[in-house]
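Colleagues,

For the teaching module next term, I've prepared a clean inverse folding example: a structure given as tokens, and then the sequence designed for it. I'd like students to try predicting residues themselves before seeing the answer, so please don't circulate the second half yet.
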């Protein structure tokens, strides 16, 4: 019996590894396709900015591709719109920059890294994934030392769901907060025995993704129901407890404190029609209301 369980867990782990490697390959393929080397620029349907406007004043460049050097010495080659880098392009940092030798290849919006992109540091480190306002938010970071992290980021720190694989093969998979590993992913019967992060289905249409302890929803988690209701926040012993936001299927929304699965404490209830109820709640009812109309 134990041997059968070991084989089953091994098979699940192998299937998960294959799926992750496939996803990484797809993400890498996407960002490689965004590369805008001079040869690939020639294949774009956009006209050259220099030919269209006869000037290197990038403020005039719109719906074209071109190469420009910024006052910092950085070089951008790629697509332009409304006088700014918009679309697919390559950003090469100047030798005088604190990021000298770094290169970003990917999507841009208003001169910033936005969308899918690959960033390669001068020391050989590499990131492939999603960007927002020049900051990477979700993807795969590979260090030259051999370590690799795949998951969510916040302010350039590992934050959210993620998996870190060390050079020696050791793995930390679960929840991260400000670059620290705080909650491991549930494996096998972990969900029934210790604190871990995982997902579970409760009947038709109900699903929970978040923290568990002794088989019960505990900690931070998200629960969705078949009727469209959704709760994002803190749990205690299978009940909404702490701070959280509940969105009902009809669009009504409560943001605030909970206890024993009921609104309890400070909170705001916003009805789909626009009426807002704010105040102190007790056992699901507004005890000390502060009615606000739009």
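(Answer key — instructors only)
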């Amino acid at each position: 019996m134990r041997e059968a369980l070991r084989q089953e867990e091994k098979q699940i782990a192998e299937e998960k590894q294959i799926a992750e490697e496939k996803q990484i390959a797809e993400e890498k393929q996407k960002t490689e396709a965004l590369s805008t080397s001079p040869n690939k620029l020639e294949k774009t349907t956009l006209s050259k900015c220099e030919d269209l406007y006869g000037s290197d004043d990038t403020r005039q460049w719109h719906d074209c591709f071109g190469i420009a050097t910024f006052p910092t010495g950085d070089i951008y080659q790629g697509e332009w719109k409304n006088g700014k880098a918009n679309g697919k392009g390559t950003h090469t940092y100047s030798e005088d920059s604190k990021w000298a030798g770094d290169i970003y290849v990917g999507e841009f919006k208003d001169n910033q890294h936005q969308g899918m992109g690959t960033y390669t540091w001068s020391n050989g480190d590499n990131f492939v994934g999603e960007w927002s306002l020049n900051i990477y938010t979700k993807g795969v970071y590979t260090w030259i030392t051999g370590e690799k992290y795949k998951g969510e980021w916040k302010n350039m720190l590992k934050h959210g769901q993620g998996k870190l694989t060390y050079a020696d093969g050791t793995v930390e998979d679960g929840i991260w907060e400000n670059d620290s590993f705080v909650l491991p992913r549930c494996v096998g019967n972990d969900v029934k025995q210790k604190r871990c992060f995982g997902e579970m289905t409760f009947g038709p249409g109900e699903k929970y993704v978040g923290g568990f302890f002794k088989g019960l929803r505990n900690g931070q988690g998200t629960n969705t129901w078949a009727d469209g209701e959704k709760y994002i926040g803190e749990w205690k012993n299978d009940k909404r407890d702490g701070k959280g936001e509940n969105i009902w299927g009809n669009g009504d929304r409560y943001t605030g404190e909970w206890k024993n699965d009921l609104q309890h404490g400070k909170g705001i209830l916003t009805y789909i029609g626009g009426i807002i109820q704010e105040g102190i709640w007790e056992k699901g009812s507004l005890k000390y209301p502060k009615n606000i109309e739009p």
